């Protein structure tokens, strides 16, 4: 059985194939019929985009859908996520889309499964591979190649699963990735290449903004005048290259990491990302259920 838990497990070729498959689905609407295939969406943390775009992707593929959340699943009675996944497998479910707060837990759970595919829809501060793939798909519509493309990821890098997934993937594809963050929110395990927001806006083809992940901060508190120091202001947007684009995984905190009027400006692709999320998630489901990935989840060591 195949899983999508980390962008680090994908080859460059596999990432490119996801983009190609999403493009085929978007252009031709050509999909595999998946009647009598059950998907379970397990969301133990809030979500608007990921949860609903998976739901729409599954419906468009003709799948039957079971919804589980923190309130109506037996996780509230102390069942482990591993046992919940084994239960779904025993019931004949083929796909589980999982968002939950514990970093890295899905790697362990995947080892005990033989007929259920897992998609990581965000695990703590770990990864968000499907967001990364839809971001890459959005970028691929604007630029002919990732090779030497200058991308800046700006914001709360340390607590962002989107930053981690995109850093792995963009570097694999040959992009030059820089980061902007206040010192306490930097993560040297992702990169040591930190620049200022002014430098980022002048040099980047893609400026990817991130929300401050207050819910994951042990010690809260914003860093000074965040918008002026680290955010995208109108002044900075005017210094960006003419064909540069602005991305944000959303939800957006208007007026914090981006000036409100820029959310839908000419350079912004923020709502396009959401639309691209549906076709990319269809591509991901098809790819996994056809068994087209190489990575083996056996003998995982934490
Ligand atoms: N980008 C993203 O994951 O959004 P949601 O939390 O709304 O799913």
TrEMBL record:
Pfam families the UniProt entry points to: OTCace, OTCace_N
Aspartate/ornithine carbamoyltransferase carbamoyl-P binding domain span: 2-140
Record-level Gene Ontology MF annotations: aspartate carbamoyltransferase activity
The keyword Transferase appears for this protein: yes
InterPro entries xref list: Asp/Orn_carbamoyltranf_P-bd (IPR006132), Asp/Orn_carbamoylTrfase (IPR006130), Asp/Orn_carbamoylTrfase_sf (IPR036901), Asp_carbamoyltransf (IPR002082), Asp_carbamoyltransf_Asp/Orn-bd (IPR006131)
Residues annotated as binding L-aspartate: 77, 161, 211
Binding site for carbamoyl phosphate: 49-50, 99, 128, 131, 250-251
Keywords: Pyrimidine biosynthesis, Transferase
EC number: 2.1.3.2
Catalytic reaction list: carbamoyl phosphate + L-aspartate = N-carbamoyl-L-aspartate + phosphate + H(+)
PANTHER family, per the entry: ASPARTATE CARBAMOYLTRANSFERASE, ORNITHINE CARBAMOYLTRANSFERASE, MITOCHONDRIAL
Family according to the record: Belongs to the aspartate/ornithine carbamoyltransferase superfamily. ATCase family.
Quaternary structure and interacting proteins, as annotated: Heterododecamer (2C3:3R2) of six catalytic PyrB chains organized as two trimers (C3), and six regulatory PyrI chains organized as three dimers (R2).
Descriptive protein name: Aspartate carbamoyltransferase
Species of origin: Halobacillus shinanisalinarum
Gene: pyrB
């Amino acid at each position: 059985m195949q899983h999508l838990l980390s962008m680090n497990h994908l080859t460059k070729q596999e990432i490119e194939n996801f983009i190609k498959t999403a493009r085929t689905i978007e252009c031709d609407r050509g999909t595999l019929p998946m009647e009598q295939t059950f998907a379970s969406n397990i969301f133990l943390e809030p979500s608007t985009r990921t949860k609903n775009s998976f739901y729409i992707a599954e419906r468009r593929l003709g799948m039957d859908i079971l919804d589980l959340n923190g309130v109506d699943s037996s996780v509230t009675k102390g069942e482990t996520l591993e046992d919940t996944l084994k239960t779904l497998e025993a019931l004949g479910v083929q796909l589980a889309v999982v968002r939950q707060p514990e970093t890295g837990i899905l790697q362990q759970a995947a080892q005990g499964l033989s007929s259920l595919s897992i998609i990581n829809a965000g695990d703590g501060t770990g990864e968000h591979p499907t967001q990364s793939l839809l971001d890459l798909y959005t970028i691929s519509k604007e630029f002919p190649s990732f090779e030497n493309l200058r991308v800046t990821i700006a914001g709360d890098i340390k607590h962002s699963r989107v930053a981690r997934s995109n850093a792995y993937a963009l570097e694999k594809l040959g992009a030059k990735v820089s980061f902007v963050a206040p010192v306490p929110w930097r993560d040297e395990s992702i990169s040591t290449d930190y620049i200022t927001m002014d430098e980022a806006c002048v040099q980047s083809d893609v400026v990817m903004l991130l929300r401050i992940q207050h819910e994951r901060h042990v010690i809260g508190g914003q860093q000074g005048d965040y918008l002026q120091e680290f955010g995208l202001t109108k002044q900075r947007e005017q210094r960006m290259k003419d064909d540069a684009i602005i991305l944000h995984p959303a939800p957006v905190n208007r007026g914090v990491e981006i000036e409100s009027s820029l959310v839908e400006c000419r350079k912004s692709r923020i709502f396009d990302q959401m639309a691209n999320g549906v076709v990319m998630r269809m591509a991901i489901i098809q790819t996994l259920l056809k068994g087209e990935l190489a990575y083996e989840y056996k003998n995982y060591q934490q």
